[in-house]
Amino acid sequence: MTTSLISTKEPFLQLKDHLTYPESGVLSKVIWKSEFCQYSLFCLAANTEISEHTSTRHATVQVLEGIGLLTLNGEEIALKPGVLIFMEANAPHALAATSNLAFVLTLSSAS
User: Fold this and answer.
1) 3-state secondary structure of 98
2) φ/ψ (deg, to 5) at 67
């Protein structure tokens, strides 16, 4: 069973209180999950790359802090606080964190 940061008993949280950067690589925490949708907090160390991949679900990325670059369907998108990106299911994408980078990833059913 996956532990969530949020629950029906405590339906709110301050995301900044949960930002923890690893020395290298990626740290992710599930904020909330159901059979149709999942919200996760991702913290990437500076100079971390996630190689190109796809997902069978629709996704959004909402950048909280840091900078980086998302390549989506071959197009480069600058990541900085406030940026929100929608990715359709099966869209090839990759990510590179220039500095420590935090974002909320939302996955939802494609149908």
Assistant:
1) coil
2) -135, 155
5 vs 75: CA distance, rounded Å: 33
What domains sit in the chain, N to C, each tagged with a CATH number? Answer: 37-108 (2.60.120.10)
Tokens of 59: 């996704």
pLDDT tens string 72-106: 999 999 999 999 999 999 999 999 999 999 999 99
Q: What are the residues facing 105 on neighbouring strands? A: 40, 61
* Buried-state track 92-106, b at ≥16 Cβ within 10 A, e below 16: ebebbbbebbbbbbb
